[in-house]
Amino acid sequence: MDWFISLHPVMQAFLATLFTWGVTALGASLVFLMKDMNKSVLTAMLGFAAGVMIAASFWSLLAPAIELAEQTNVPGWIPAVVGFLAGGLFLWITDKSLPHLHPSLNGSSGKEEGIKTDLRRSVLLVLAITLHNIPEGLAVGVAFGAAAAGFPASTVASAIALAIGIGLQNFPEGASVSLPLRKEGFSRTKAFLYGQASGIVEPIAGVLGAALVTSMRPILPYALAFAAGAMIYVVVEELIPEAKVERHNDIGTIGAMIGFTVMMFLDVALG
Which ranges does the record mark as transmembrane (predicted)? Predict the structure, then answer.
């Protein structure tokens, strides 16, 4: 652990997001074991991912943002509100602009969003998950940048806990790309490559987030809240609706409760 703590925060963020990308690839590798996944299992996994992201948004991002702001004599609600809404707005604009195809659990072909394009369905599906991975990588990078700033509210241990939580919830995201592509006739290898490719953006976003906040510390509380807002947008826009495709199905809700608990435990125990 000492060798990791001694690294520059940008390198810490890079290694941590390599881990989260690796878990995405691990989820995508399920395509080598099966052609389809039980709908209830995938619903529970998506609910779990939603719970992790909700907990991470508060415990690892919003709470430190408020505390950091108050330590610099700025009312805590200002960066929390401004950053949170800015993060959601950024994802909303990106969601409306970038062509992508949402994966579907109910057997339908999925919903195309963004500008009209002639891109293949496989590319659109990867773009959808890639879009959702941007705030996750950004959150990890900003967390390590915040730890390097030396504020008591943010530590390397809490940033590591966030990376572990993000990694856990990346598992179903990799599977949600590779398995639908396999059902559409792609080879297992090609479906896996597309699935893991959706996580490539996380190291990029992580490095950019860490570099930005270490060079511009006054924006740190806003950056933390921004990442939280972007993550909550993903949860409400994509994960919760997909986890509740079947009415009166409590599996997604139970998964979300477990995911929230796991992330809360990681942050409080390790942070």
Answer: 12-34, 41-62, 74-93, 123-145, 151-171, 191-213, 219-239, 251-270
Residue 123 neighbours by CB under 8 Å, 6+ apart: none
Q: Which residues, at least 6 apart from 242, have a Cβ–Cβ distance to it below 8 Å?
A: 43, 46, 102, 103, 104, 105
**Using one digit for the tens of pLDDT, what is the confidence trace for 25-41?**
999 999 998 877 777 88
Count of the separate structural domains present in the chain? 1
Q: How confident is the model over 217-227, as pLDDT tens digits?
A: 788 899 999 99
- Supply 225's token pair: 């809240």
Q: What does the pLDDT look like over 124-144, one tens digit per residue?
A: 767 777 777 888 899 999 999
Given the DSSP bridges, would you call strands 111-113 and 100-102 parallel, antiparallel or unpaired? Answer: antiparallel
In this prediction the pTM is 0.84
Q: Which domain holds residue 187?
A: 43-102+121-270
Determine the Cα–Cα distance for residues 41 and 8; give it in Å rounded to an integer.
39
Token pair in block for residue 83: 């950053």
